[in-house]
């Protein structure tokens, strides 16, 4: 037989106090005396009373809960973003529910429905790779559900967003390779239908153009997921070319690590014969030999900023005055042995 849940009415009968008085005492209301608070706390502890937060949420129309949709938790960037979200949410008294879209448009739409049914007060999301239709987010906007995007942002929607300047970051990485003497620079790119990876490829191309270096189609290879295996395939492709690149900028660190390993096995000296720069500053960038130069994309700070922005939207009393806000975080080029000449 299940144990009966202790309620405020039970405490009220035990102490001969009004339920409202007990409720205020539990919330440390200044209008309740210290003596009454002490009596209430002792009785609550004795009977094992716990507040019914769900019922309270329905009464107040506040769940103090936010939803988060990430493509894949096992990618270091997203796990750092989640850490930033959870830390900021915890400090502000919010609970976090996390879902993975697995880069599926269909799954992303289903998660949005689930989160809305859970009555979360706002949602933080990084778009799935497959998403190019934003109707499910437009519905949330009509319902005035606060929404903040991070990293991968819808191209044609006025939305709250937190991101980095991927174009400038890629330009900076490629320019670094040029300034250390590289003249035949390759790029392992992410899926070009995704805005951030298109911006990184464009930053790479702009740097080559600025310094009057040739743009060779065979030196820009597009991948689907920027996986380690795809990086290996790209590295082998470069090795098979009649003339080897002397610099490679990769759109993430996984592919950059595979390049370092494949060229090491081929006895190509790094960085003397080939300099390599990655993107995201994953922990493996300091484990691989030589240590990998990379872009620090401020993932933890991105999570914090997205959460602060979302909570400010949630707690804004007049939802009609909410305007789309954009926060662009500065990145940092970290120069390590893979490109230090």
From TrEMBL:
InterPro entries: HTH_LacI, LacI/GalR-like_sensor, Lambda_DNA-bd_dom_sf, Peripla_BP_I. One of its GO terms (molecular function) is DNA-binding transcription factor activity. It comes from the Bacteria. Residues 6-60 form the HTH lacI-type domain. It holds the Pfam family Peripla_BP_3. Keywords: DNA-binding, Transcription, Transcription regulation. PANTHER family: HTH-TYPE TRANSCRIPTIONAL REGULATOR GALS, LACI-RELATED TRANSCRIPTIONAL REPRESSOR. This is Transcriptional regulator, LacI family.
């Amino acid at each position: 037989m299940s144990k009966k849940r202790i309620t405020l009415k039970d405490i009220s009968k035990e102490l001969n106090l009004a339920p409202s008085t007990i409720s205020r005492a539990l919330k440390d209301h200044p209008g309740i005396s210290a003596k009454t608070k002490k009596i209430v706390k002792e009785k609550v502890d004795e009977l094992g009373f716990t507040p019914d937060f769900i019922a309270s949420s329905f009464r107040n129309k506040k769940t103090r809960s936010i939803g988060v949709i990430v493509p894949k938790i096992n990618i270091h960037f997203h796990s750092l973003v989640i850490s930033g979200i959870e830390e900021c949410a915890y400090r502000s008294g919010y609970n976090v529910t996390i879902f993975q879209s697995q880069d599926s448009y269909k799954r992303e739409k289903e998660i949005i429905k689930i989160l809305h049914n859970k009555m979360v007060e706002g949602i933080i999301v990084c778009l799935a790779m497959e998403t190019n239709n934003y109707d499910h987010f437009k519905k949330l906007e009509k319902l005035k559900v606060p929404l903040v995007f991070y990293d991968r942002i819808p191209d044609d929607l006025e939305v709250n967003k937190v991101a980095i300047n991927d174009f400038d970051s890629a330009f900076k990485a490629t320019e670094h390779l040029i300034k250390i003497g590289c003249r035949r620079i390759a790029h392992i790119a992410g899926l070009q239908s995704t805005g951030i990876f298109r911006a990184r490829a464009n930053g790479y191309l702009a740097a080559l153009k600025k310094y009057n270096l040739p743009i060779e189609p065979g030196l820009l290879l597009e991948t689907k997921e920027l996986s380690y295996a795809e990086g290996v395939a790209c590295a082998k492709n470069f090795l098979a070319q009649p003339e080897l690149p002397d610099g490679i900028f990769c759109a993430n660190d996984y592919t950059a690590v595979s390049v370092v390993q494949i060229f090491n096995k081929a006895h190509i000296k790094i960085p003397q014969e080939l300099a390599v720069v990655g993107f995201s500053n994953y922990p493996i960038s300091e484990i691989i030999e030589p240590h990998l130069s990379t872009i620090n994309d401020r993932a933890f700070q991105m999570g914090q900023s997205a959460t602060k922005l979302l909570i400010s939207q949630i707690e804004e009393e007049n939802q009609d005055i909410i305007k789309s806000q954009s926060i662009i975080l500065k990145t940092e080029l970290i120069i390590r042995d893979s490109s230090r000449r």
